[in-house]
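Q: What does the assembled structure look like for these inputs?
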Amino acid sequence: WEGEFFPGIPKIKYEGPTSKNPLAYKWYNADEEILGKKMKDWMRFSVAYWHTFRGTGGDPFGAATKHWPWEDGTDSVAMAKRRMRANFEFLNKLGVEWWCFHDRDIAPDASTLEEANANLDEVVAVAKELQGTKIKPLWVTAQLFMHPRYMHGAATSSEVGVYAYAAAQVKKAMEVAHHLGAATYVFWGGREGYQSLLNTDMGRELDHMARFFQAAVAYKKKIGFNGTLLIEPKPQEPTKHQYDWDAATSANFLRKYGLIDDFKLNIECNHVTLSGHSCHHDLETARLNGILGSIDANTGDPQVGWDTDQFMTDIGEATMVMLSVVRNGGLAPGGFNFDAKLRRESTDVEDLFIAHISGMDTLARGLRNVAKLIEDGSLAELVRKRYQSFDTEIGALIEAGKADFEYLEEKALEWGEPKVPSGKQELAEMIFQSAL
Amino acid sequence: WEGEFFPGIPKIKYEGPTSKNPLAYKWYNADEEILGKKMKDWMRFSVAYWHTFRGTGGDPFGAATKHWPWEDGTDSVAMAKRRMRANFEFLNKLGVEWWCFHDRDIAPDASTLEEANANLDEVVAVAKELQGTKIKPLWVTAQLFMHPRYMHGAATSSEVGVYAYAAAQVKKAMEVAHHLGAATYVFWGGREGYQSLLNTDMGRELDHMARFFQAAVAYKKKIGFNGTLLIEPKPQEPTKHQYDWDAATSANFLRKYGLIDDFKLNIECNHVTLSGHSCHHDLETARLNGILGSIDANTGDPQVGWDTDQFMTDIGEATMVMLSVVRNGGLAPGGFNFDAKLRRESTDVEDLFIAHISGMDTLARGLRNVAKLIEDGSLAELVRKRYQSFDTEIGALIEAGKADFEYLEEKALEWGEPKVPSGKQELAEMIFQSAL
Amino acid sequence: WEGEFFPGIPKIKYEGPTSKNPLAYKWYNADEEILGKKMKDWMRFSVAYWHTFRGTGGDPFGAATKHWPWEDGTDSVAMAKRRMRANFEFLNKLGVEWWCFHDRDIAPDASTLEEANANLDEVVAVAKELQGTKIKPLWVTAQLFMHPRYMHGAATSSEVGVYAYAAAQVKKAMEVAHHLGAATYVFWGGREGYQSLLNTDMGRELDHMARFFQAAVAYKKKIGFNGTLLIEPKPQEPTKHQYDWDAATSANFLRKYGLIDDFKLNIECNHVTLSGHSCHHDLETARLNGILGSIDANTGDPQVGWDTDQFMTDIGEATMVMLSVVRNGGLAPGGFNFDAKLRRESTDVEDLFIAHISGMDTLARGLRNVAKLIEDGSLAELVRKRYQSFDTEIGALIEAGKADFEYLEEKALEWGEPKVPSGKQELAEMIFQSAL
Amino acid sequence: WEGEFFPGIPKIKYEGPTSKNPLAYKWYNADEEILGKKMKDWMRFSVAYWHTFRGTGGDPFGAATKHWPWEDGTDSVAMAKRRMRANFEFLNKLGVEWWCFHDRDIAPDASTLEEANANLDEVVAVAKELQGTKIKPLWVTAQLFMHPRYMHGAATSSEVGVYAYAAAQVKKAMEVAHHLGAATYVFWGGREGYQSLLNTDMGRELDHMARFFQAAVAYKKKIGFNGTLLIEPKPQEPTKHQYDWDAATSANFLRKYGLIDDFKLNIECNHVTLSGHSCHHDLETARLNGILGSIDANTGDPQVGWDTDQFMTDIGEATMVMLSVVRNGGLAPGGFNFDAKLRRESTDVEDLFIAHISGMDTLARGLRNVAKLIEDGSLAELVRKRYQSFDTEIGALIEAGKADFEYLEEKALEWGEPKVPSGKQELAEMIFQSAL
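A:
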């Protein structure tokens, strides 16, 4: 493959909200300061290698639809290297400084672990060079779900040999992450769950998963990898039930097994909505548990019961997401990874750019809206006032754990029927919308 | 009211599976031993006062449909006492030894807390007498959701006065529980959640809830009440999001705030399915976290998105539920409370009996099925075999936390591609069904 | 009650998008022309009497929270008349020219039909006078779901006496609609469905419903009422399954029973999403079946499985809704009825205004966005181009039903493998968002 | 491939409910008479070629897991012929007389239609011979969703060339169906729907689909194929919205375009539950619209939002399904096709047998339960009594369309408040369960 991979596509520039150019940013202006930080430092956008460079458009009812011109139809190491060059041209044209991948996305799997590792090393070397000084992995992960050996799980497989294989694969992926200077390392347990409890020993599987994570923590320290370890919750699909169901479930697991200080969460919006919450809810749950680490920036279809991994285009949702990010003081070392894919029917090379630009602009617009909300101040004030009865002496006693039932009963009798003001939800919604 | 409340209804007896008598047990035989325990000791059935004696048939689109003959249309203390007598006749005719109630179900609320407490005391005295030596509350709880003062929550209300009022009400309800010899005390946080995160300070609300529970633990000890404290998870309704979403979420909350040793869970099947799990899943989750305390025996409609509180009639579901109960060694001091209501359109007095008999028989049939499964042994054997590769030296090392990534990689390289046998789910389902 | 009902609330005026005044329109400017019509003629906003004036804030777990100052706590005819005056002051202050009601909302029910009708007449006389020349009912309907007699349905009740009673009630409500100059008459079959198929003869019930509708058509003609008859689909709640599940189901019913020319649909967005579609989908389905008659303007919570009847505040959704309305050439004689209620926790009188203003502004903003999309033209052009292969001779043959399989096979063989261009969904989404 | 494909598997025999042999029928006894018909004539079981012989265990997150010993890893015509022999050995060992397939399941696709048709002819010739006199296709269909050409739909593709190609493919498949003596021909429009309405002209697409079906009806008549044409509804997946959403939606489409007399429906239980109904509901809806044609016998997971295509093992669900079948007088010329697949993790050859035996036994058990319910009679009697107020003179007038609103009002006034008896749902559930 000679020359450019995306010959007709220029470096994407910021042209502002009035631009009609699909290949320009209307809201994302990387170096513009918003709320005291450059937009790019708030966002830390990352391209997901698997969707953007390995996504085929296949689905359970249909074959591949994407046939990018640079692909030669093989799964060779040579092809993997060429594809990696396409990836870096893509990152550079978008102006994105982070990328994410599974081990098996970037280099061909093989019939032995040794050979697979060798393939990986070869491609990683190319990536390392192409990264230069400006680009790094936002996160790295091991693909522990595609290969049939993982059909019963990886760390939770009923087969000890699979557990060992998975450990070896994660070990290698962590080394690669370290080598490439990855900011974080992610665990998504796609097969860590069950299809039926009838043939499953859930207790034993959960114990195994904990042991696996403990070993990962130890190995990370051993090799001096400083990236945050992240768990990515998902309620189900491909399993009927995935053990890392949502943020709260994952937090409980981490607490139960003494891992709460060693892990944070990588929250994916589409996963969250599949678990019955708003994305904002699970971001807040993670934040309040001190474990909001990174975000997989995508969205689902509210009427669809599986992971559609769409690029987020809803301005309201993006604003809510950015509210959590701003409250968290940003996501670093995590960021926004576009775990999002083109629709199966979108088959033009330019669609890859359009989709990412749209996703980036949507979140950037969300950030600008949050800035407007903060500047306006009335939403925060509404919330502050709502709880002001606790900003009192007795409120302080309660919050300090010093108000027992007898004291509180005394107060209740003294005060009589409490006055309960309006919750003002419609006003809050009106203020919120006015910033969109 | 003179004489019997249910004049045409005899004491319900066990007549066996061939009986066609709607007013007889076909599967529940209280004193029969199954798996080493009397059925009644496995089941510990309880009648829910609010559904059975205070349920009106009203719904958001319709007025009351139930007009039991003993009701005089008032909410007086006299009526409350008469109704209590109906309750005990009902329990006695069913042969059930446990009952559950909210404070405000059994005695009229009032415009002051003092008066409400006085009403409660008067009715509790009657209940105490009617209980005699054989009947006790399975659990008691405070109704912290009906009164408009609780519209923003009780322990999580934005108003400090409401927090205090709720504390006073729980204090009293715990005293009543103690006085009546209740086996447990339940917290269902129907309003402890939010309608919108826009006007909510979730972090502060969760902290308040923890303080409230800590105070409850302290008060329980102070008065010498030995009943288990139980949290009843529910994902939503009436709130958009209830903080005690499911078993895992509740466990995380309890761990975060250091309450995990002081509380267990009261799992309600309909609540579980609304949160996206099977009832069996959440029972197992609670059990594996050491906090399976009691069960609210009901079921939902799989196509309906709200709490229908139906009596469970699905034999397969009942068998799965009983699997967890048997693994837990029973539920005592908890039990099975029928948090289940007649359909709005079921308006005959006998329907109250038919519904309870049906619910009791279904779970009893589930228990008998579990006994068959255990006797047959092939399902347990299938599961045991599935994990046998961990019943080895290296399996033991892993489970003891002594197998690090380097060791595991070595093993993986040594072993080559692992063999992964069939999961045999269809066989497991066939065996399971053969016991139904 | 003397003087104003809403003393602190001015006539609501348009102040434009930069206004921070909660009691002003930012997007809805009644007399401004958009796409060739005044905004008020596109929107035809209507206030729902039951939510705004009879909504109590009660829910299945809680008592009433709203205590409007003009209410005296009675359900008397005098109170009904006073409340009607509040309604008209509300309409006038909002600048809304339409209202909707059920018979039993506006006047007290009674123990006999004669008396209930007399109550209704008395209140209708007041309404008629207050309507003056500018205000009219967008629609009228009979409340056939609240009273316990309707617990098994109205037109589909298993009791012939209930069927007759419902007919009598609809007859009267149609007379009232005629008298007040209502634009349409609506049927919402809240109880026309089932809780269980085990005790239901669905075929017989559907036949009865058809007979009932046929009688309504006949009576409408007889009294010379020219308003459109509308069916309002809803999938479920309070029933497990409502016969008018969604637009397509309702259309099938109308076609099967020869009623398709006599009815249109009143589509409610929250009902639609509960049935698994986007609101826009069902609006388009109704439109393409020639039966888009009116809209109940509300929205649901995407994570909630029951009817929340919230005021729509999502700009994207509002824009999609308005796309259908504009394609339909407007909704007249139908319009946008706010079948939306304040949150239970919103208890200030001003919240009633804020909520309506917010809902009106959201839809008005949607209309403005549609105008932008139409002016821009690129979205319509994208769709036109996508289908242009049918704007050909063979396309015309197919669309005329003149291309048989043999001819098509011949073409397929002649043409070889067809080229299939990108669907450009992400570009479409980008264009759509740029108008928001 | 020499000799048997399933060497260890005997001809499956009926051994009765007490058998513990996984490879025996416990409830399905083909020649036993139930309710006046042989079980095999009620059931007309069919094996789905695509799941059983082409299912790979691949899912969106994982590669193939099934590697049947007779597969050589190629997609050659020779392999297709060998596989067909495995199919017939499977049918014979199960004792099943029907099979179903898509054109592309049984023979390799090719780069030209001519070549694909030639492949098909070659394999069909083998199938024809292997069918002998006892085995026939329950149905045949064309696979119009896998190939990327169909990514925008087949009959509803935006490309006229795809429409023609699809027509040619259906033409050929109908000829094959005719040649093999298929009982019916099925249309499942997996891609006939949309991913987004933003880039879709739904009206034009629906018109095209109708034209396509009209051409199919004409071609069927032309070639003298007498098999019923069937539409298989599904709400979504792979599309966000499939046009044949459910039974009612499909019926509306058929009525709108004058096709209601030319098509029936093939109802798939898992599709129905994804559309928000119980399977029984859609079977009844189809039956009441006169278009219940055949059943795809499978089930979904109640907590999962995609098509799991599991073998049905729920006895209650099977009994409800059989209730509809018995009311319909059977399904012939349709039947029960096992559109069900092994779990991805079930990889033993014997699992194929176990799964089918389990599915067949479950439905057979359902039929036996229906026979018990009918013999007992009390459920039917409960329903009959419930509607008996319509078995009267006025009921007859209403049902004949002769009771107008004036007459009904007169009756309502004459009768006063109607008595409304209990719906007895719990009793109905108790009776139903007693038959399981």
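Residues 349-376 of chain B form the longest helix (28 residues).
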